[in-house]
Amino acid sequence: MAGLTGRLPDGASDARPIGLLSAGFVILMAVLAIAAGHRLPAWPWLLAGDALALALLVLLRQAPGGSRLALFVSLWYPMLFMAEYYVQLGLLGPAARHLHDALIQRWELALFGSQVSVTWRAHMPSLVLSSVLHLCYAAHYFIFLGVPVWLFVRRGRESALRAVFAISLAFYVSWAISGLFPVAGPYYAFPRPTGPAAAVAPARLVHAILDSGASYGTAFPSSHVAASWSAVLVAYRDARKLALGLAPVALGLALGTVYGQFHYGVDALAGAAVAVACVLATDPLRRRLARGTRPA
After folding, report:
1. Contacting residues for 229 by C-beta, under 8 A, at least 6 apart
2. Who wins on pLDDT, 38 or 151?
3. Which residue among 4, 23, 111, 278 is buried most deeply as judged by most CB within 10 Å?
């Protein structure tokens, strides 16, 4: 444990901006849980989870700035937060006063001329296309989890911290929008996909995952698209070959969210826009947050 608990040299990668970013998101989620009030019987339990999350962040903040253990935990705890808050948003969605699917469907019709999440697969019921796009959709876990790990091993802590910050920012921004502007998505708004293209093994796998733990009300923007493309874009600076290799998978993922009827086309476009904005904001926001944590 000496390697983990020892101190890092001065100027080592600063994990505190991730903590401040995460604390802001946790506080927002607590506010949304309180606002749900009587419509959400489980809201005290959600607040308890938020309190535990904030306690973890305080403990990390109190750890020595150069502690290797604190830095290691700071690298990976946002991934645990993502699992926790995906579940929390899934509880907030059904308690929302109003879902905005009708508005999104109007945007969809104006932009694409149809409800493309339904009509695309009906016009192109390809078993091969369905298999490839559903496999790409299922790969999002490997993209946003794998990129920071690869960068940590091959490029060092700073690259990994930068990637975790960008990916976390994409998730937090996407979920903040979903919490304030809940959209169920075409998977719930329209009849479920049927036919041979929906019966291929990759499609059945994705449907089983969604039916066992999908987060209702988080369709807009697509956090899968936002986080996956954030991972690809943030990797481009330090691992260009990795980014170029993952880009076709991330593109297939974005298309697969629509082809598989998991998201509206507008959701996927909004997720891509969130990814670009978050990656562009990553370095200046990290610097600003880092400056705010240093003593005068």
Report:
1. 170, 250, 254, 271, 272, 275, 276
2. 151
3. 278
d(CA 232, CA 140): 11
**pLDDT interval class at 123 (50, 70, 90):** very high
Confidence band (pLDDT; 50, 70, 90) for 71?
Answer: low
| Alpha-carbon span 266 to 166, nearest angstrom | 22
Token pair, residue 289, equals 């947050």
228: which residues sit within 8 A by CB, 6+ positions away?
A: 140, 143, 144, 250, 253, 254, 275
> How many domains does one find in the chain?
1
How far apart CA 296 and CA 293 sit, in angstroms, is: 9
CA proximity to 200, closest of 245, 256, 249, 147:
256
Judged by DSSP in three states, 183 sits in strand
| CA-CA-CA-CA torsion sign (119, 136, 208, 141) | negative
Quote the tokens at residue 134: 């559903």
SS3 199: coil
CB 178 within 8 A of CB 270: no
Query: By residue range, what is the domain housing residue 156?
Result: 2-292
User: Distances in Å between the alpha carbon of 70 and those of 10, 12, 126, 153?
Assistant: 15, 12, 49, 18
41-50, 71-80, 118-127: range with lowest mean pLDDT: 71-80
Average confidence (pLDDT) over 42-54: 90
Would you tell me how many other CB atoms lie within 10 Å of the CB of residue 30?
19
- Answer whether residue 160 shows pLDDT above 60: yes
Q: What mean pLDDT value characterizes the chain?
A: 87
One-letter identity of residue 49: G
Q: How far is CA 255 from CA 48, 126, 225, in A?
A: 37, 14, 9
